[in-house]
Amino acid sequence: MSTPHNSISADEVAQSPDVCVTDAASVTRAVKATMLGNAMEWFDFGVYAYLATTIGKVFFPDASGSAQLLSTFAIFAAAFVVRPIGGLFFGPLGDRIGRKKVLATTIIMMAGSTFAIGLVPSYESIGILAPVLLVLLRLMQGFSTGGEYGGASTFVAEYAPDKRRGFFASFLEFGTLAGYVAAAGLVTIIQTVLSEEDLLQWGWRIPFIVAGPLGLIGLYLRLRLEETPAFQKMEQVENRSLAAESTGNKLRETLVENWRPLVLCIVLVATYNVAHYGLLSYMPTYLSTTLGYDESHGLVLMIVVMLVMMVGISFVGKLSDRIGRKPLLLSGFIGFFVLSLPAYLLIGMGSYVTIFLGLAILGGLLLLFVGVFPSVLPALFPTGIRYGGLAIGYNLAVSIFGGTTPLVLTALESSTGSHLVAPVYMMIAAVIGGLAVLLIPETARKPLDGSPPSVSTDAEARRVIRKARRNHPLPRQS
């Protein structure tokens, strides 16, 4: 006799290829572990950006002020050059051996290289070898980071139930903002407490050295996690270990068979990162170097804006679960096209009130991106190549348009003499990004491509299994 549809045991739920079940405690642990790693990643990058003028004086003391800044941002951009290589290496590896092992590796490499930057002797001590060591460590940072965001967003997306993926995934960017806030806060304290001489001699090292213990905490949290349900289900359905696949096959599947989502991913991330790095990395330098405001005051304003964004980010993620991802992304790109120039004009008016208003406008628009992209990007790719596709696409875009944004804007301002290069750059990016949003599918409340529906309770799982059995009845047994 056939098994009654209404009688579905717990073992059948666990073994069914038709559904993934993730309990709330597991999702929470996954979110915390990936959020901390993301926070540390952007703490590292934020510290470097916020200490750009100081680092320029330490490692390029003989250069002029503008040359020091350009050299420092060139090294900042160097880390992004190798990020696609890290994505090519870690992404397909994460699709073969699992997300958890790769994410444990990247956080250790990232923390170690950042910690080592804080120990590099100055130019006065060892001459040209100092900037050479700085470049090498920044390259190691970039290589490890190439596997971080793609893996972290894949991990959270595959753990989260379909109905709440936007909400849970938004905490990944909460970690990004937390990292920036921690970096800006620590740099502000150091700049306020220490004299200029002490800051140049040893104070700038403190934020980098802090990364060591943070990395150990992140590693501990990640090693306690289980592999994502979607990855386990894929191995269960295919009844084999995916580690046996070659990296070449994974790359071919990603680059040839899934070129369309890869291109859309690159375009979306590129346009988003122009706004992201233009505000969070370049703005403090713009306020101090271009407009002549005090460095610490500019950072304080940025901290306030980012704290407000942190409060709102989960609400944006939750809203995307209700009304969809595309309406929010389109609103963000339209807003950047219309309001970037007015926001920069407010910032240039001279008072702290107008600066804050301009930053608040840009931060509010950026919030629509940071709250939605972590759930949009993983959904572009099927489960079998999700880590690799996202790591490659994301890091190519970040390498070309993200990390170079501060360098490009600084160079354009120096050559044109215009203070309004940044908003025009953002407006162009907004047009391209808006067109890309029109071409992506709406993925809110839907299963990930290549994965069965993901639910949070056994009751929901049984409903999914019953529906699958109704659509594909089991053959009657005599």
- Bin the helical content: over 70%
Q: In percent, how much strand structure appears in the residues?
A: under 5%
Low-confidence spans: 1-5
- Which geometry do the CA atoms define? globular
DSSP summary: helix tally: 24
Strand line-up of the largest beta sheet? 1-2
Order of helices and strands: HEHHHHHHHHHHHHHHHHHHHHHHEH
What distance lies between the first and last C-alpha atoms, to the nearest angstrom?
Answer: 6 Å
Oligomeric state of the chains? single chain
Number of strands: 2
Q: Which structural class do you get from the secondary structure elements?
A: mainly alpha
What radius of gyration results from the CA coordinates?
23 Å
Biggest beta sheet attributes: 2 strands, parallel
Average per-residue pLDDT, rounded, comes to 87
Notes on the structure:
The structure is a single chain. By secondary structure, the chain is mainly alpha-helical. The chain contains 24 helices and 2 strands. A two-stranded parallel ribbon has the order 1-2.
Key words describing this protein structure:
single chain; 478 residues; mainly alpha; globular; disordered N terminus
Question: Which helices and strands appear, and what pairs or packs with what?
Answer:
Blueprint lengths: L9 H6 L4 E2 L2 H27 L1 H8 L5 H17 L1 H15 L1 H19 L5 H4 L2 H17 L2 H12 L5 H29 L2 H6 L4 H18 L5 H10 L8 H11 L1 H22 L2 H8 L4 H29 L1 H23 L4 H19 L2 H4 L9 H17 L2 H12 L4 H19 L14 E2 L2 H14 L7
Parallel strand pairs: 1-2
